[in-house]
Amino acid sequence: YRLEVDVSDNNAQAVVVMFNETATALVNWSADFLMDTMDELYKIYHFAQTLNTFCTDLYV
User: pTM of this prediction?
Assistant: First the structure.
C-alpha cells in the first residue's frame, strides 16, 4: 500500500510518499489492519447516525 503524508509548517510544505515496508514500519500497522479498522469505524459511524435519527424522531 501507499501512505501519503503532508508535512508542513508556516514556512514550508512537503509531501512524503511511502510504500508497503516503510509505511508499515512507520505506523506499525499493516494495510490490511488499517482497512479492516476503517471498515469497522464506518459501521460504528453508520450505526450512530441511524441511532441518532431514530432518537430524534422518537422525541420530536
Answer: 0.48
